[in-house]
Amino acid sequence: MTEFRNARRSLTSVLTPIEKRVLLWMAVRLPRRVNSDHLTVLALTAMLLAGLSYWLARITNVGLVLAVAGLAISWFGDSLDGTLARVRRHQRPRYGFYVDHVVDAVGAVFLLGGLALSGYMSPLVALALLVAYLLLLVETFLATYTLGTFTMSYLKIGPTELRLLLAVGNLVLLVHPKAELFGRQYLLFDVGGVVAACGMTAVIVVSAAVHTRALYAAEPLPQTLIAE
Fold it and tell me: Which fold has domain 8-227?
């Protein structure tokens, strides 16, 4: 197998400093029988449960509270698996990168599929949000491979902040499921979903332009070809 060069991680989200300390504190205290694979499976299972909880929310508001619990458990598993591997010196760069982000993509399908069935977000908005998120993942992974830097947050917002915003939104839904804009009422999560999808799309466009420019500067056309 060819030599693997681990990409530099870039995580500059708002909660990163405190999150790193909390994850390290938990990692050194986790029982030895628990390993990073267990945490990854836990994260995926939690996202499935969160999606099912949103589906349940169509019947009872208890589903919204259960979804918050699912998001919290997902954060625990998804954020701690890599930290635990580094603390125990059990890093598997290829395996970890691949499995962790396949889980992220599948988890997003579970979560947004549940939201589309919840009645709190229109299926079309959920689909647009999922497409934008998956395209952002694709752009991020291509940039990681070609530029050697794995960007884990944009505009000071990373996975943890997104989970926290969604959890807070769930609690707001219990009181205000709709928002009024320009004299009309819309589903609160439709408004948030459209804003999020537009924000992700803007990030994709800007990042793709910046990365294309950087790669072109690193690999310009030969002068002879330009002259022709």
Answer: Four Helix Bundle (Hemerythrin (Met), subunit A) (1.20.120)
